[in-house]
Fold each of these.
Amino acid sequence: NANHDRPVSQLELELQAEVDKFVSATAILGLEKNKAFMQEIWSLLFSQPKFNENLEKENLARYMKANKYASKYCLNLIGMNNKTTKCFHNELRRFYRLNQRAKLSRIDTLNTDLRH
């Protein structure tokens, strides 16, 4: 989006950073095809997030929203692990190119159980 002179909000940046953190961790550890390990990484990153207690309300709300949406999206990625690597990477590319509204809408349509 930034490369195409489209505005990028702080929420969009935080959301993408959360997704990138999960994808990078699983890729670096070579876990993209191991559902159990991907779930463990997901749990470490998303199951009990901790936020700086000194954050202003607006910033805290943004971080919490980004974490919630990234958590759901990354659970969806775990569910894709039995598909080809090409499908996985295509999904990541598609998601990356979406604007904030489209990313949130995409995640809202996912049937992912957040209770994990």
Amino acid sequence: MATGSSHHRARLRTRAIPLLVVVMLAVLVLTALLRASRHDFVPPARASVGGGANHTIAQHKILLDPDFTPRLPRQSALSLSLSQRNLLPPRNAARFSRLPQGHLKIVLYVHNRPHYLRLVVDSLSRVEGIGEALLIVSHDGYFPEMDKIVRGIAFCQVKQIFAPYSPHLFPDAFPGVSSGDCQGKAKAAKKQCHGDPDQYGNHRSPRIVSLKHHWWWMMNTVWDGLEETRDFDGHILFIEEDHYIFPNAYRNAQLLVGLKPRKCPQCYAINLAPSDVKAKGEGWESLIAEKMGNIGYAFNRTVWRKIHAKAKQFCNFDEYNWDITMWATVYPSFGSVYSLRGPRRSAAHFGKCGLHQGQGSSNVCVDNGEAAVELDAIDKVPNIKANWPVHIIKKQEGYQAGFKGWGGWGDRRDQELCLSFAYMYHFQDTLSA
């Protein structure tokens, strides 16, 4: 009997040894994977602020290049103080305490055109349903008059964020003008200056590159950095300081977002206006699917993830305009990119000053700040019908794949800073230069 028991225990040991080896190997592999994962990236800044427990698209793995280490400029006192302001909660939350199901978040990105901003804020105050929205105002640098206008908003929840690495905050260092930087078409070797020229031989202009830097920083911050939005998977509506918003814009945007999955499942976004900024719309009894425009556009996190995955293409393309960069490089990589809109515009571009003309104390573009936008009665109420068919415009003029860019974005420092913005909320140790 004892001999049989010893034989049984020996057989058990013989079976257990291979199983133990397999378990140990599995533990070693899992440990290695976890270490590699922690080395490459961390989820969007959740550990430090105790983000929500719901697992949404926001928490899906982000693919990063392990060979790239993000480096951000060393911040000045002003830059650091603005970063702290970015952490403040929205104002007017007590008055507008409930953001209902199906609400849209609105991002207004601004530069330094106070005449324009006053008009936009006034138009937003007249929008039906605006009290249901969270308005995020993203500033390219700090300009006291712009700050004052936004702080006076009382018609909805409002949160201000400031691009802390805006060239306008660095008067004598990159991303502003560094000592020894090449200017214009200067030859670096001959002048003994720093910088990479663009494809046309021109060196960087901080006032120009700020446009693309701000848009890309804003997108990454809104989708992946802010506590108020990083777990939000719905549509976010983006508008600019020279966009006049009609009273029906918010309700029409909600209607389009609701109709898009059924009416145009291939559509990536919705728009409040035609892609041709001068057009008022067709006036048909039909929805329109066309190329994505840059006036009042909204998309969700799924689309953002696709855009974010093209960070290298976006950041390395020699073009200082963010929208032309998207049209010429990012969107074509997706195939046919359509945006759904109504047959009448719900937002309009106005003004004469370009973004780069409204910056800097010695080069401020000023017009009378009047928006010559005539509103008909139909523009003041929701005017989109759920039973309308969809008319698809397949071929349109404009910037497309193959366009080589207008330049202004040839300096490797700008390209690396741009790519750092794409990594800064997903990397454990973002370095300061």
